[in-house]
Amino acid sequence: xxxxxxxxxxxxxxxxxxxxxxxxxxxxxxxxxxxxxxxxxxxxxxxxxxxxxxxxxxxxxxxxxxxxxxxxxxxxxxxxxxxxxxxxxxxxxxxxxxxxxxxxxxxxxxxxxxxxxxxxxxxxxxxxxxxxxxxxxxxxxxxxxxxxxxxxxxxxxxxxxxxxxxxxxxxxxxxxxxxxxxxxxxxxxxxxxxxxxxxxxxxxxxxxxxxxxxxxxxxxxxxxxxxxxxxxxxxxxxxxxxxxxxxxxxxxxxxxxxxxxxxxxxxxxxxxxxxxxxxxxxxxxxxxxxxxxxxxxxxxxxxxxxxxxxxxxxxxxxxxxxxxxxxxxxxxxxxxxxxxxxxxxxxxxxxxxxxxxxxxxxxxxxxxxxxxxxxxxxxxxxxxxxxxxxxxxxxxxxxxxxxxxxxxxxxxxxxxxxxxxxxxxxxxxxxxxxxxxxxxxxxxxxxxxxxxxxxxxxxxxxxxxxxxxxxxxxxxxxxxxxxxxxxxxxxxxxxxxxxxxxxxxxxxxxxxxxxxxxxxxxxxxxxxxxxxxxxxxxxxxxxxxxxxxxxxxxxxxxxxxxxxxxxxxxxxxxxxxxxxxxxxxxxxxxxxxxxxxxxxxxxxxxxxxxxxxxxxxxxxxxxxxxxxxxxxxxxxxxxxxxxxxxxxxxxxxxxxxxxxxxxxxxxxxxxxxxxxxxxxxxxxxxxxxxxxxxxxxxxxxxxxxxxxxxxxxxxxxxxxxxxxxxxxxxxxxxxxxxxxxxxxxxxxxxxxxxxxxxxxxxxxxxxxxxxxxxxxxxxxxxxxxxxxxxxxxxxxxxxxxxxxxxxxxxxxxxxxxxxxxxxxxxxxxxxxxxxxxxxxxxxxxxxxxxxxxxxxxxxxxxxxxxxxxxxxxxxxxxxxxxxxxxxxxxxxxxxxxxxxxxxxxxxxxxxxxxxxxxxxxxxxxxxxxxxxxxxxxxxxxxxxxxxxxxxxxxxxxxxxxxxxxxxxxxxxxxxxxxxxxxxxxxxxxxxxxxxxxxxxxxxxxxxxxxxxxxxxxxxxxxxxxxxxxxxxxxxxxxxxxxxxxxxxxxxxxxxxxxxxxxxxxxxxxxxxxxxxxxxxxxxxxxxxxxxxxxxxxxxxxxxxxxxxxxxxxxxxxxxxxxxxxxxxxxxxxxxxxxxxxxxxxx
Amino acid sequence: xxxxxxxxxxxxxxxxxxxxxxxxxxxxxxxxxxxxxxxxxxxxxxxxxxxxxxxxxxxxxxxxxxxxxxxxxxxxxxxxxxxxxxxxxxxxxxxx
Lengths: 1146, 96
Ligand SMILES: [Zn+2]
Description:
In chain A, 19% of the residues lie in helices and 28% in strands. Chain A is elongated. Chain B has a 4-stranded antiparallel sheet. In chain B, strands 1-2 form a two-stranded antiparallel sheet. Bound molecules: zinc ion. Residues 7, 9-10, 58, 61-62, 64 of chain B line the site of zinc ion. Chain B: InterPro entries: SoxD, SoxD_sf. Chain B: It comes from Albimonas donghaensis. Chain B: One of its GO terms (molecular function) is sarcosine oxidase activity.
């Protein structure tokens, strides 16, 4: 036992001592201690140094409002600065350091900053900027950076996981003090779904600060509650957002010396509450008196908490200065604990005494009207400030209640303050008020409730507010702190007022009062009272500054949650991902996709080496490129042709069945939105592709056209991107190779350029679609097979080509090939170009009566001669390079906005030409062929003389497309290993996460047929489609749309269908923690009322798009598009680690 | 941080599941309407403080285009309707 630890009592577990270090020195505390209480018990009263003046400071509070006792906790990646020692629960082996001191907390050279105090006064930021710049940069800023500030963040990566969770409830009760407990019990007894969130380690709030027997026992109160009451301890409600959604930060393993490796550090909750009660209590106000920041001076309520909860005496002889009953209650408890009380000074707001705390480095007493009271601890209470911040985060302004002597929150729908948060005092009054508030809140929801506690009177009349105190003599010259954390004094506020910044919002910015990490919790009301006083106004006439979320600091880790590292965003993998990986592919991120960028061969060290070899192989023999990432949309319906004719600028309705056409989609303003191909599979069935990057926006645009612009058309879009493994086979030998495995006749007569066929491979073994398209300018085909057949088909193609005959190529070689041919991508289609700018003006068929962009194209400016148009650039010096991003200038012109002629959009060193080739958008470029210009690259500092040429560098006549080539080779016998590859091949399996009983079980459903079924227009809601009467699983896919798994022999009458087999993968999720894992990622309601058995929804789980079906009470099915399945599987395992589970692979 | 939109097909969902396109008031002019009509449709937008009707898409759910009527100052949502369903039922009523 130490001098300050009481021999008995408190809510600490003396049987469980805990060792910890503070500034390298070993200490011992008990289970139930905070770092602050354990240090106080050990006689360490100075726990931090102040922000600007490096003044020694001890804990002012015993809770989350603490401005002084800020420490750095943890080591390595877990190092965290600015942790409040008053809320940091002690754990075995905890490592904490003090901050803002050099070389030590006791001897701090930086305290000399106090000598510069006149320089650091209010507005010093603004004033010092007026000094000569060199002085600021060389002298002043480094000085301040060294002297001022709080703790330093660590630089190592945080090793911990952070979780998220959504919850929905009838009533959220914020704070588990007397009002909150009474409210929660009242509402839970009425059958409502209630969440009780409290920042403390155990619920109880102020009840835990009472001596045993002085109030009800929180644990006993909660013991009787039913399962519809969820208690969230260590959970701070930090934000109130639209639609009554609350942000809540739950501390789980964070700041524990040895956290459970399977538990997250923190969990960020978003709680959608139909009603909420703010029972957060109130903060005690410090006295604005000289010397009020001396170690040993603390709030009366804080001393009472340390005394009764942690069994720590504040000193040997305690003086008390109080406005209201708080100090008297402390004195009573001190005496009961055998601690001497020097004197209790009851402060009369109407006749304030001269008052100051005395001491140097530590409080030695108090001066009251010239009388000295000796004491080694000084308790102060200036009254209470209700914690109304949350209620004022959405625009409501607090108002001053003269009756309560406090700022209160106005009435706001959805969130109602109760108990001390609306200014009441006394346990019984708060119990009764919480119960009554819950009854009222539930009645707004149509629920009847009986109050768990009767109304009761308050224990005293609210005290009037206190103004700053003065003291005469030397004691009166000590600083009076208003904002302890930011070291803002009463004198600073006075100076701000004198200099014209007396308005609270201005004073805040001028002095930084209220801008520290505590967001003015200790200082806000006192600053407002002081400013009103300084300006000669009545209390409350100077307003509180605007309150914004978050109420308490929220770590970036908690906000990021699972979205970090490998799970930063969902990853999409093509069906050929593992196939390419096995061939050494280097991948590049394109949106969410991973695409092979190049395939390094042995001895190749630079990407360009590999890509050049790949591109040459395409032009010499043949290459294989995975183009599965292109957006693929099946457009069906009686009006499909008419619809696409309006969506694309060129003619679509005229495409014959079995043919494809390059097509341009415009925006309504005439600019190009995207390009792709449109293939007609049947009179009412089209297969269209988009670029990889624009797949999502293009589909959204087409849906907008169909649903909003032309709602009467019979047309439906189905994204089938994930259904197909799509391979470009390009090069002179393409037909010969393909012909060996494709059942269709691939002779030029039967299958000319731009032909399309639905066919099969290996004598009907594998369904396939073949398209004769070319991006490289070579004879080329795109072969689509169901995704699962991708790897086997790619293997077969390689085998059919023989050694070296078919070269896999990646995005880099693809770029070289397309630049050589002058084909555009979104480097050129940048949102400011028209079809004509790209040399594709003839594609826009103005004679069509209507298409998106037709009217916009007619704008005269789009025909201006100086528009940037597409052209090619080659360097005059064949050895020179041109880089994308370079600006084009006329020779001899200095770079300037006025001289700018355009810019290089894409550039490469052409393997076919042997020199650099670039595409550029240049003013009137298409008409300036042959002109010499300069490609100026300001970043690289180069100017490269170049010539404007046609953007088609190679084979402008297109002869290579149709050049004679070897006919189909002899059919390849089906390879022995010809088999589909499961979507989740390679997925992690086995036990994962927390040991013990598995909370989760992940399984893979067998793959099979998937059909999207559409109701006929106007019959969207009709049975039997809507019902699960069909003989196989039916999932909601939008109104009038269903996903049917397992095949559908007959299309129901009046419905249409699109095959999507292989596009979706189903994952089974089962176990007691299944719903919690789902709630970690989706905000959809998962309770049985909103989501009964048999129901299914479409939602997003941590940004992963998926379909979710409930198969049983704890049994779910997740359906996810194939490219996302593996990443989702791994994300589910990662997020599920805290529950422990088992993953059973395919 | 958070807010909920009540999709008529999917129920209340986090705002993150939705994307916003903008003002739902401008109607696409007839193809051969005067340039002024097209100019207004392409470029002229009101930016009211208060009630506003906007096109939103539930891209993280049913994929439908919706009209969300809300207050731009308070984000109070008054109604959420399916654009195409509303248009089709209006067309049916017109015929009857
Ligand atoms: Zn929806």
